[in-house]
Amino acid sequence: MNKKNTNSEDSIDKTKVILDAAIQVFADKGYFGARVSDIAKEAGIAYGLVYHYFNSKEELLISIFKTRWTNFIDVLEYIIASEEEPQEMIRKMISFLFNSYKNNPSMIEVMIMDVAKTSRFFNDENIRHFKDAFRLITKIVKMGQEKGVFHQQTDATFAAYAIYGSVERIMLHWILDDMKSISQDEINNATDMLTTTLLNGLAICPKNS
After folding, report:
1. Which of 125, 163, 188, 198 has the most crowded Cβ, counting Cβ within 10 A?
2. What pLDDT is attached to residue 13?
3. DSSP per residue, 54-77
């Protein structure tokens, strides 16, 4: 393996270590209470090395958003490509988000509680990135309308934000109640409950479960 490839891989590894440390520190202390020195200590690296990869604490927070949100967009694209029924697509999206909380509650806490606190989040690039996910959720709703299983008069974009917002508020409830450990059964039950509630609101002929 040549030196260039080695250096590139080392850079990726260090970036991940720093981002993981930042997630934990931001979750523990909040964005404004966290210091770069805290992140360096959590990562087990020299203070100056953080600035080798990131220009500021703000850039760290934006990088967390971009990395995690890109993953969410990739999952949505995969779900749509599966060509399953729209109801199942929505259930899988909800399941993915809830399982993301189960697997990394600190990351979800930072995404919900801290990302929008930085003024840099509200630039055109980040807003476009944010809206890309909702275009995909909107597409799923429209697919359901085209198949005749969701109400035609429902505004698909409004529904997309309502679906995601419902998931986020439940995760906020877990954060505020300091629920750091959630079982897979609890995740499955929450997924089924929310999916049923949302789909019965969208369905032309709601069925009793």
Report:
1. 163
2. 81
3. -S-HHHHHHHHHHHHHHHHHHHHH
Nearest CA to 97 out of 111, 86, 113, 114 is that of: 111
CATH superfamily of 1-54: Homeodomain-like (1.10.10.60)
Per-residue model confidence as pLDDT tens digits over 131-179: 999 999 999 999 999 999 998 888 999 999 999 999 999 999 999 999 9
- Assign a CATH topology to domain 56-202: Tetracycline Repressor; domain 2 (1.10.357)
Whether the Cβ atoms of residue 79 and residue 93 lie closer than 8 Å to each other: yes
Burial bucket for residue 149 (CB in 10 Å: 0-12, 13-18, 19+):
middle
Judging by beta carbons within 10 Å of its beta carbon (0-12, 13-18, 19+), is residue 166 exposed, middle or buried?
middle
Q: String of b and e for 49-71 (b: at least 16 CB within 10 Å)?
A: ebeebbeebeebbbbbbeebbee
The whole-model pTM stands at: 0.84
- Give 171's Cβ-side CA count (13 Å radius): 27
